[in-house]
């Protein structure tokens, strides 16, 4: 292969290299992912996302049994080459990429089913460049249905002297949400290395540092920074924003709002929490470049 077509896109500055593999011919190795995502020797990105027919991936049978209309599968890889189950910013960018490729038309606002390793997700376009996605049901780690949440982990990080109570959640992928004291502590936190989570989650975890901000009674407002599994600190994480909203609403107690705006370094996303445990994430998705790359030059 001498030439590989790509696009580049981002959702609140969580950025991705996008590949269209409509005939399922691409051997997307971990080495190729790392090379594409490399910010100096490659194209650069927090992750690589491949569009591939759902029928062509091992997860496809279960996905198509759940929803036969989920024709396209989001094959998500972290920048270090590892595979992740889900990406909330990525799935919105994926939808924008499908529209760009002419593989989907979301102009009527109807939801489009997309296959992911976390199951089927439905994305609808609220306006040009802004998408809402049903993120499924949040769970406790291990897939247990959540009934009541309390602090269940401890997190230690550089720059913060004491261990902090935290909450581990499964949004399809694993998250640990840590409540910091205030916005100043959040701004000063050192996320150059992965925070140490105790007990250590079996598959690793994405760690969100969060503070609740002043808000009115009907809409919540939180600020978050994230250290992503397989990447490092990123400027946004959609599944992380959902996990953070679940945690801050829980910590806020009875009567807390069900809609939260979550500020991240790269922008703001909206999270709606339904009483049945399902969540909806909304935010921008932008495609910023289209081109070709020589994979041999990248990896060599
Ligand atoms: N940035 C994503 C999450 C990407 C996967 C994550 N790093 C993991 O390994 O679980 C998002 O927007 O949700």
Automatic annotation (TrEMBL):
Active site: 87, 237
SUPFAM superfamilies membership: Diaminopimelate epimerase-like
Location, primary (coarse class): cytoplasm
One GO BP annotation of this record: lysine biosynthetic process via diaminopimelate
Pfam family, one: DAP_epimerase
GO cellular component: cytosol
The enzyme's E.C. designation: 5.1.1.7
Site (Could be important to modulate the pK values of the two catalytic cysteine residues): 175, 228
Localisation per UniProt entry: Cytoplasm
Binding sites annotated in the UniProt record for substrate: 14, 78, 88-89, 173, 206, 228-229, 238-239
Transmembrane segments: none
UniProt name for this protein: Diaminopimelate epimerase
Organism: Flavimobilis marinus
Taxon lineage: Bacteria, Bacillati, Actinomycetota, Actinomycetes, Micrococcales
